[in-house]
Amino acid sequence: MAGDIRIGIGGWTYEPWRGVFYPDGLAQKRELEYAASRLTSIEINGTYYGSQKPESFARWHDETPDDFIFAVKGPRFATNRRVLAEAGESVARFFGSGVMRLGRKLGPVNWQFMATKKFDPEDFEAFLTLLPKSADGYPIRHAVEVRHESFCCPAFIALARDHQVAIVTAGDSAFPQIADPTAPFAYLRIMGTSADQPHGYGPDAIDLWTTRMRAIAEGRQPHGLATVTEPAEPGPRDVFLYVIAGHKIANPAAAVALIDRTNDSR
Q: Is the dihedral of CA 247, 144, 107, 75 positive or negative?
């Protein structure tokens, strides 16, 4: 059996998407509802910058289909610090802020680190130990988005694998690419949409990323993604892919094209 594939974008509130992705005249309060009807996941970015109201999480839950999944960014107050081992209070505050109101629609939590943050094995392990495996009766899946070359080492891969934490795979960007499987799911963020393609990505790129997602879901190592180690076949994994950055106005179109191509390939 293959893992589930979820494809989406970062956030849903972006004025240039109105009249391009969102139909003309669509009420702003219905944008999430519309986006969730075209996509299969969305990464919530606002949680990285500050706490959201519990009522907001509850509303987002209610405005999306039953099988919809949100990825959520962990707060920068936990990751943008010199000593990660001291992030316990920030992590606990985040999970007590109302995010669990998403219930079964809560997907992976992405803990994003600044590009200047270097790998300190002892301190990073202390941080991973702070991440809860469950909250309010729901299992929690964690991913770490690291952007410094010092993380491209076997010790980091082993540490992530030991804690069953996924390493975010950066696609079509200048950030280090680490596609080693370390958890029962994969988390990809692709950043290469361009203005000269109607759907952000051309047909060949859409086919390439679809093939890669399918390989991961089926338990094979995808072609052309860089790994630090020589990983064994990891087995089927769920896949979460988000189209971000790049030519942002085209990101929803790219995500929809990837969903359509993935459905066609089944």
A: negative
